[in-house]
Design brief:
The chain has 254 residues and is α/β, with parallel strands linked by helices. The protein has a single domain, classed as Rossmann fold (3-Layer(aba) Sandwich). Helix content is 36%, strand content 20%. The protein has a seven-stranded mixed beta sheet with strand order 3-2-1-4-5-7-6, sandwiched between helices. Strand 1, helix 2 and strand 2 form a beta-alpha-beta unit. Helix 1 crosses helix 2. The chain starts with 13 loop residues before the first helix and ends in a 6-residue tail after the last strand.
């Protein structure tokens, strides 16, 4: 059994929290209040819930029943039930008449074989002048065992990621590569911990005690500040993650 990102609710930590914090930071630059946001590939809903808590109207989309079950349990225990909708059918998602102002996709596109088709869907369901805010694993040279276990299909190079969106009529507002703390965390904490969970069969044990990262949840808000060091170095295109903000051009204006 391989890890499908977002399906193991116990294997996340401050890096995941930091990535979501960066996405939220970009979202808040775009709009505040009850605008409609799609969390595409929402997984267990860590980002979905945080956006809803900030007052946004959020739809969480995922095709993993396990992940959505975890999210539903979280929603039931939250104070933002009325602000969150869940969708697991891409066809129904595309019939959303009013459209979304913002689509967030944190660590999602690398799992999808036809990523170009997904970008077309994004364009279709965004309102005029809508935005995509996304993160992806960067640089092919950083490919390792964790990519294989997570069933990643690719790591993106900068021009490749930008071209994926500009070829479908988007404009790139901002793109940056973040590290080195994220890279150090991955190489010396995340990856070794992940490999320890792999018995000779190559399967992942989904028991809480197999990962000390599962105990760091309450410390995320503290540890996340260490990751802000990454932002000092974001002008260098040499780290292992990209964040990009792209917007749908208003063709009537253009």
């Amino acid at each position: 059994m391989k890890i499908i990102w977002g399906q193991d609710p116990h294997f996340f930590g401050p890096r995941d929290y930091f990535r979501n914090t960066l996405i939220i930071k970009e979202v808040r630059k775009i709009a505040k209040g009850r605008v409609k946001i799609l969390d595409f590939g929402c997984g267990c809903g860590n980002l979905t819930l945080r956006l809803a808590e900030l007052g946004y109207s959020v739809t969480g989309f995922d095709i993993s029943p396990l992940s959505l079950d975890v999210l539903k349990n979280k929603i039931d225990k939250s104070s933002v039930k009325k602000s969150i909708k869940i969708e697991d059918n891409i066809e129904k998602l595309q019939k959303n008449v009013s459209g979304f102002k913002i689509i967030c996709a944190g660590e999602v596109l690398e799992h999808i074989r036809d990523d170009k088709e997904v970008v077309r869907i994004f364009k279709k369901i965004l309102v005029k002048d809508g935005f995509c805010v996304l993160t992806v694993p960067a640089r092919k040279k950083y490919w390792d065992k964790s990519d294989e276990l997570a069933e990643h299909l690719r790591r993106y190079e900068k021009k490749e990621l930008m071209g994926l969106f500009t070829s479908e009529g988007f404009k790139i507002k901002r793109i940056y590569c973040f590290g080195p703390v994220s890279l150090i965390w991955h190489k010396f904490i995340y990856l070794p911990t992940l490999l320890k969970r792999l018995p000779s069969s190559g399967s992942i044990q989904h028991k809480r005690h197999h990962s000390f990262l599962s105990y760091l949840t309450w410390l995320n808000k503290i540890f996340v500040y260490i990751f802000y060091i990454d932002l000092i170095f974001m002008r260098f295109n040499c780290w292992n993650h990209y964040l990009m903000v792209a917007y749908k051009k208003n063709e009537e204006k253009d």
